[in-house]
Design brief:
Blueprint lengths: L2 E5 L4 E4 L2 E4 L5 E5 L5 E3 L12 H14 L4 H18 L4 H12 L3 H28 L2
Antiparallel strand pairs: 1-4, 2-3, 2-5
Length: 136
């Protein structure tokens, strides 16, 4: 069964590293085979990769969209995951899940879990800033 994607006007989609933009009205696209694809709303730019969890997401995104560059991206992904897990022990299960998805070549699932890591990172930062503001 093909994957159906509806693109709004001017919305972008990356398929196997190629940026596709809808230049007209609502477009319906059918993907009939396996492809690495991300909708514009799921893409993080290098400039947006401004926190450790976002850098993890960005590195996995690059590995996903540009296959064949394992030597470049995998060491970075694993280093970022190790550093994050050590800095935030409460995330160790989620970090391990992401690592297992990456090791299994399930990059899209790794990205979904990395989104959860971004949310968890923000919660940790919010808790830390609340603790600082409560202790003058």
């Amino acid at each position: 069964m093909p994957l159906t994607i509806n693109l709004k006007p001017r919305e972008r989609l990356i398929v196997n590293g190629v940026v596709i933009e809808n230049s007209g009205q609502l477009a319906k696209i059918l993907i009939h085979n396996n492809a690495a694809l991300l909708r514009e709303k799921d893409i993080i730019t290098e400039e947006q990769a401004s926190t450790p969890a976002r850098r993890i997401y960005f590195a996995i995104q690059c590995e996903y969209l540009f296959p064949g560059k394992d030597d470049l991206f995998l060491p970075i992904i694993y280093r970022f995951l190790t550093e994050f897990g050590e800095a935030a022990p409460s995330t160790v299960n989620l970090v391990q899940e992401i690592r297992e998805f990456v090791e299994g070549g399930e990059h899209y699932r790794a990205l979904k879990s990395a989104k959860q890591l971004i949310v968890r990172e923000q919660e940790i930062l919010n808790d830390a800033s609340e603790g600082i503001s409560k202790n003058p």
